[in-house]
Write a structure and sequence with these properties.
Two copies of one chain form a homodimer. With 199 residues, chain A is mainly alpha-helical. Chain A has two domains: 5-59, Orthogonal Bundle (Arc Repressor Mutant, subunit A), CATH 1.10.10.60; 70-197, Tetracycline Repressor, domain 2. Helices cover 71% and strands 0% of the residues of chain A. Chains A, B: This is TetR/AcrR family transcriptional regulator.
């Protein structure tokens, strides 16, 4: 828990390089072996640091997983509002697909997949992270409803209908997920949302 | 690789009990620790058998994973044809949700999540298993198209739009997935598929 300020605040210095190496090694191992295959010994050896350095950075594995979730949250961009809801949801979905296909995104999914009781803090943290996006989405949907582009809709349901297929697609890894894949999903869902509102 | 036929063919006998204990222990560990957290030592101790027994049953871990995938395949029921495509897809989706929420279903997802090169046999086997369902689905969709209940549609796309949201839902484990959840997804997707065919 001791901190050497002259090192910690030297950007590009040795501490920063160690951090980057540790981070890259952690994501590699998570992607290859999953959450429970991650061992500090292997992490230290891949990052070419001592085990004490790993324990200083992440005193336990949950600290590491929290960092993974936090970094994933940083990569998520807010939903745009260009006035065209199909276009904005398409961009939102495409960026979600790109984030999900990265080692970090895959690690997040691994964390969510662990069997957990309701009380598990890590699983809850992962879900809260996804829910934060839901609030953002609800605001965008409400503006679309006000503009007559959508019937009144619930963001958690819409998010499931949009992000679920993307996760399914990314898991198969047959080919990259394109903007036109995103548009096809969004157009189908938007049309489907109107089903009970046909004149 | 030696087999004792008098034991192997005694249903309900000791061999069968050992098999069931091994199977239950394997699913427990997979659910708790993921594919790469599964160790033969722990498997043997949880199933209360010797390590040699585990190695006889599954000479390596891929043999075990293949068994998991095969057992999952057995649980999947064929898509019904009552003449009402919304009803049949709803039942199909509901049974997929139930299968996905079991320890076996979760283990299958874990296997699919491992980082793999194209050549990985296990990942391919998991995908082929899902694709077998796609052939079945395509036949049902084609009959619905012939009956005027659907425009011409591709099963892989429809399956992604139906099963993706279910997987998303099951992963959150907030509450059980009900028949009416399944129906809402199916109705939205079917309405959305007609979007380019409105009169």
């Amino acid at each position: 828990m001791t901190v050497n300020p002259s090192r910690a605040h030297r950007p590009g210095g040795r501490t920063r390089q160690v951090t980057e190496r540790l981070w890259a090694a952690a994501l590699d191992i998570l992607a290859e072996k999953g959450v429970d295959g991650l061992q500090y010994e292997e992490l230290a050896s891949r990052a070419r640091v001592g085990r004490a350095t790993v324990y200083r950075r992440w005193p336990n594995r949950d600290d590491l997983f929290r960092d993974v979730l936090a970094r994933f949250a940083e990569t998520s961009v807010p939903i745009d509002d260009t006035g065209d809801v199909v276009r904005d949801l398409t961009a939102f979905l495409h960026s979600f697909a790109e984030a999900s296909a990265t080692p970090t995104g895959r690690a997040v999914l691994q964390i969510l997949l662990r069997r957990v009781d309701e009380a598990d803090g890590l699983h809850r943290m992962g879900l809260e992270l996804l829910d934060r996006r839901t609030d953002d989405l609800q605001r965008r949907l409400d503006r679309a409803t006000a503009a007559g582009q959508l019937p009144p809709t619930e963001a958690p349901f819409v998010n499931m209908m949009l992000s679920g297929p993307v996760q399914w697609f990314v898991l198969r890894r047959a080919r990259p997920f394109t903007l036109s894949d995103a548009r096809e999903i969004v157009e189908l869902v938007v049309a489907g949302l109107w089903r009970d509102h046909a004149e």
